Amino acid sequence: MNHRLPALLLILCVVANVSCTSRSAASSTNPHRIITVAQSGNADVIGSDSASLQKAADILRPGDTLVIGPGTYQMDASLLIPSNVTVRGTAGQTILLKSPGVESALTEDADFGESYLLVTNPERFHPGMGVAISDDTLKEGWDVSISKVVAVHDHMLQINPPTVRDYDLDKKHARIQTSYPILCTMNAENVTFEDLTVDGNKTANSYLDGCRGGAIYLYNVRNVTVKNCVARNYNGDGISLQISDNVHVLNSESYGHTGYGVHPGTGSANSVVEHCHMHNNGDIGLYLCWRVRHGQFHDNVIEDNGHYGISIGHKDTDNEFSNNTIARNGVSGVYFREETAENSGNRNTFRNNKVLDNGTAGFYIAKRVTDTVLTGNEIRDAHGHAVYKAEGAGSVRLENNTIEDHTPVTEPRP
Predict the structure, then answer these.
(1) CB contact at 8 A, 260 and 225
(2) pLDDT tens figures, 343-380
(3) What is the layout of strands, in order, in the sheet containing 103-105?
(4) Are residues 242 and 185 in the same domain?
(5) How far apart are CA 192 and CA 194, in angstroms?
(6) What is the mean pLDDT of the chain?
(7) Are 39 and 151 members of one domain?
(8) Gap between the Cα atoms of 140 and 285, Å rounded
């Protein structure tokens, strides 16, 4: 994954109906309101799609609550939420379902800052659709442009905001596809999501990784809570938080995604993930990306993910993991990725976790990772190693762990 931040990333927030930019407060004396959306009956907005939901979100003022009634809402674009509000559904009954994806090749290059794209199949698109622009090389991380169709003119799509890279048609198959985050807040603070189910409809959609998208996507936010929510079946990541501080993911479930269940990344600090269930994801349950620091990950169940239960890497330091169950993940329960000495995931503590029946190792400690503390854990697996220290790994402090059924601690011979 490419983790280079584009200099003009904030171009995402140029247009109010596309971005999630914080809106200014009307007045601190305004009473807090409840704005309702329903598919029928009495409500402030009646409808069953993303346009109806966005219409309601656009009239929110600080302190308001958006209540989305039961039903399945067809999401042709992101639902973009401003600062200082709560969005609440009915648990298990309010479902935001991503529309089936469509795609078209471009018929000319899409250059940096482009707002008009010539495409092969314009009939597949309509105004209001969320889209992603990419090519065979610029297809991951911050290199993908996320935008929205504003108009369709013959074979030309007008989008806003403009592209953030140069996409090559002839050699790299530049394309546009309807990939986007579903429930989203960006450049915002003091937002709560409660009792919502977000379904990515992954079999009918193309892949978009967690730098730019997810079933629930948070970018450059502070003091955001995701509580009692379900994220499922996204062709990418379930809950992704990027460049964010003090995000709490509580009592939520994230499963069935192609990528990661929960993905704190890109300088996200003070993250809290508690009482969550991350399971049956194609790659990793809990993925700490780059510079995830001072996080608290407690009382979660992380099981049956394709490769790793937890993955820790680039400058992911000073985090604590306690009272989690990490079970039956394909390769390792906890996997430390190899980095340089300066950039390793150091000073992480695992306390009172159950690490059970994972593929080849309970804990895999990579080269140059140091100051890892494992205390009071139960590690059981008949298949591999309890703790595997790769050649060149730094200090691992083991205290009062219960280790059963396999090689307890493996270190390479000098």
Answers:
(1) no
(2) 999 999 999 999 999 999 999 999 999 999 999 999 99
(3) 103-105, 175-177, 130-134, 145-153, 156-159, 116-118
(4) yes
(5) 6
(6) 92
(7) no
(8) 20
Three-class SS state of 122: helix
Amino acid at 195: D
**Strands 65-68 vs 85-88: parallel, antiparallel or unpaired:** parallel
Task: Pick the last residue of a domain from 158, 177, 196.
Answer: 177
Quote the percentage of the chain above a pLDDT of 90: 88
C-alpha span between 173 and 135 (Å, rounded): 5
- Confidence check: pLDDT of 78 > 50: yes
Prediction pTM value:
0.92
Instruction: Kindly state whether residues 307 and 389 are assigned to the same domain.
Output: yes
Q: What is the mean pLDDT of residues 53-73?
A: 98
Find, among 399, 292, 412, the residue nearest to 350 by Cα.
399
Give me the residues paired with residue 411 across strands: none
Q: How many CA atoms lie within 13 A of 245 on its CB side?
A: 4
Scanning the structure block, which residue is given the tokens 């290199």?
Answer: 143
The neighbour count for residue 30, using CB atoms within 10 Å, is 12
Quick one: 360 and 296 in the same domain?
A: yes
**The two three-digit tokens of residue 200, written as one number:** 């990515």
How far lies 167's CA from each of 108, 149, 164, 276, 334, in Å? 9, 17, 9, 39, 37
Residue 4 has a CB neighbour count (10 Å cut-off) of 8
| Secondary structure (3-state) at 228 | coil
pLDDT of 404 reads 85
